[in-house]
Design brief:
The protein starts with a strand and ends with a strand. The strands form six sheets. It has a six-stranded parallel sheet with strand order 11-12-13-14-15-17. It folds into two domains: 109 residues, Sandwich (Immunoglobulin-like), CATH 2.60.40.10; 191 residues, Glycosidases (TIM Barrel, Alpha-Beta Barrel). By secondary structure, the chain is an alpha/beta fold. Helix content is 18%, strand content 39%.
Amino acid sequence: MTNKVHVAHWGTYVSTPQVSKDSSVVQVKTRVSNEGNSASKSTLTTTIVDRDGKPIQSAQASQALAANSEHEFVQELKVEKPNLWSVENPYLYTVRNTVRQQDRVVDEYETKLGIRDVVFDADKGFLLNGERLKLNGVCLHHDGGCVGAAVPERVWERRLGLLKEMGCNSIRTAHNPPSPDFLDLCDRMGFLVMDEAFDEWRVAKGQIGFYGYHLYFDEWSERDVTSLVHRDRNHPSVVLWSAGNEIGDQLNPRGVETLGKLIEIFHREDPSRLVTVGCDQIVAEPRAVPQEFLSMLDVVGYDYVDRRRISRIRQKPGHRCRAVVEVCPDVRLRCR
């Protein structure tokens, strides 16, 4: 329930275009919506609050909103000597939006902020706040075992705590948008997240069945990616988008076109992060992912070093076949 004039749904986009230990710039884009039948002049005050609840920086702007319209405020605030967010010190600020009409507060909206700089470098690897960091990760599905898909927060707290103890610092979500509560915990506990959107594009997967996402991809994919990015882009834990997991379109003639469109949407809605795909046919026989597909990715995702298709060997009755078929450097299958 909101006032007719309010911060729009997923209406904030908080980014850190300049980050250093001495001074950082925080850019806050806030969409304010007027769903009333008359024009309204609104004032937006944006305040950055530290962990202890102390305001450290503020900006204010006013705008006349026509009836049934939106306006995006763009404000930049400088934070001196910021506490940088990291896996060892996941320090979170709060960005507080306050909307007023004639000095009357009509809406307040809060967004968590982690000030950090993320770089994927072809020579140096992954850099967090300018320092090289080895990603020790796991792939987690959204369910919580016997509790099903509606996972109580304490279950995730315990699971993430155990992963932290064993040295895990990064997580790949699989293979669909994760719970917002899960990402909140990753923000607070200091995990790096690869946020994955799809398990299917246009090509159906046999293990999913006949009623997979391929039936809805053409109509819904752009809206779903846009919603995913708008919902999750303020989480400092999210450092990489994944547009798909082992999708059949890797080998499809339209695969390059589909990938290009998805990357365009991710970059349009969030220019600050790179995009990958979990590819499982990079080294494969008799067909492999075309170079054109891999070249479009910001970060190439390798699922399995070597995946080959094995044809069944037919033999004469009574013949004892001693053939050895190589699957990968560590696995050998012997025919009987």
